[in-house]
Amino acid sequence: MMNLRNMVQGLESDAVALELIAHWEHDQGTLKFWRASSTFVYAVKRKRKTYFLRFSFEQETPLEQIEAELEFMQYLHRHGFPCVIPLPSVNGRLIESVQLPQGRYSGVVFSKADGVPLYEVDELPCEAWGRSLASLHTLSQAYEPAGGRRRSWREALLFAENVLHRHPHENEAMAELARVKAWLESIPAAEEAYGLIHYDFQTDNVFWQEKTKQLSVIDFDDSMYHWFAMDIAAALTDQLEDGGPEGEAQLRAFVRGYRSVRPLDEAMVQAFPRFRRFAELYSFARLLASLENSELEEAPEWLDGLKTELRQYCDEMRQDFSKPW
Questions:
Q1: CA 133 from chain center: how many Å?
Q2: Nearest alpha carbon to residue 114 among 217, 31, 33
Q3: Angle at the Cα of 164 (from 160 to 167), degrees rounded to 5?
Q4: Most CB contacts within 10 A, which of 19, 142, 188, 321?
Q5: Residues of the chain with pLDDT under 70
Q6: Helix crossing, 272-291 with 4-11: angle to 10°?
């Protein structure tokens, strides 16, 4: 989640989106707001075909991180992994930037994924879902970027630490940070178990094509260097939290599909809940940062409701920090 003040400014009158989309060929009058969370996303048409403009505030997402993300996506696509791809602008660039009074924004236009999001599928194809992530990890294991590198779990924890220092009353979160950091530092980062992961391989970012029985993937903007098991644990958030027979069956099917492509140590499967502790802590820090300096004199109607929702999420996460390891 981006800082809420930046969200309000970035959405105002669609000014940023209109400035950026002017760098790509598109059908005039088709730009429409889609969503805003960690980035801004607008749908747009070109020759009646749908594409998506995604942009972010450079102060929150540095340009070199976007470049590294796109390089990884292009690598995956070249090697046959079905994911969306960035489209060049009229200037031949994959990333365009605009300067506005509130700051600088960088945008990318992506193709639309084929199929429907997994959450719209009646019977979740968990084995195919697991196979797809395993295929991504196999390619990641051989990946060596030509340009800059994406951040790692260490930078994510450093970000969390910096946020928590601005909130010194968050004692439970600081204690959780120390536990998570010590645990991750104790795990060997073996080549077969560690690499650049998607980090958000959940059902809203994975699209199912019924005819081909294939999956197509979007949204690599959270990708980072981490253990591959973290990617699985993040993908299976709902199943791990479910605790019921259906969630357990889906988890087993996903792991079965994953293991049909590449090995997965049982110790890593048992560690899924601890990897979830990393994800919860990192999400908590991002939510705290999003709420900072978010008091605005002239705020849109939706802002108060969103702030209330985010504060409720933070309260729920605080309760989890005291749970035993």
A1: 14
A2: 217
A3: 155
A4: 321
A5: none
A6: 60
Phi-psi region of 97 (alpha: psi -120 to 50; beta: other; left: phi over 0): beta
Cα–Cα distance for residue pair 197/225, rounded to 1 Å = 6
Nearest to 94 by CA among 60, 40, 55: 55
Answer for the pair 162, 287: CB distance below 8 angstroms, yes or no.
no
Q: Which of 320, 322, 227, 223 is nearest to 271 (CA)?
A: 227
Distance CA 197, CA 261 (A): 16
Give the pLDDT confidence of 1-52 residue by residue, as tens digits. 899 999 999 999 999 999 999 999 999 999 999 999 999 999 999 998 999 9
Residues 298, 299, 300, CA angle at the centre, nearest 5°? 130
Which DSSP string do the residues of 193-236 spell out, in sequence order? TEEEE-S--STTSEEEETTTTEEEE---TT-EEEEHHHHHHHHT
Per the confidence metrics, is the pTM higher than 0.85?
Answer: yes
Look at the block and give the residue holding tokens 């990617």.
231
3-class state of residue 324 by DSSP: coil
Burial of 110 (0-12, 13-18, 19+ CB in 10 A): buried
- Residue 72 has a pLDDT of 98
Q: Which helix (H) or strand (E) holds 108?
A: strand 103-111
Q: Residue 267: what residue type?
A: A
Q: Specify the pairing of strand 214-217 against strand 194-197.
A: unpaired
Q: Which two tokens stand for residue 197?
A: 């992961």
User: Which structure tokens are listed for 51?
Assistant: 């594409």
User: What is the tens place of the pLDDT at every residue in 267-302?
Assistant: 999 999 999 999 999 999 999 999 999 999 888 999
